[in-house]
Amino acid sequence: MAARERLFGQGPVVLAFDVGGTDVKRGWVDAEGSLHELQTVPTPVAGGAEAIIELAAETLQQVPEARGFSMVVPGIVDSASGIAHSSVNLGYRDVPFRQLLQTRLQLPVFFGHDVATAGYAEHVFGAAKGVDSSAVITVGTGIAAALIIAGEPVTSRGWAGELGHVQIADGPACGCGALGCLETIASAAAIARRYSELSGNTVPGAREVLERMQQGDPQAAEVWESALDALSQGIQITAGLLGVERVVIGGGLAQAGDNLIVPLQEKVRQRTTVTKLPEIILASLGAKAGIIGSLLRAREITKQ
Question: I need a surface site. Which of 37, 90, 118, 295 has the fewest CB within 10 A?
Answer without folding.
Answer: 37
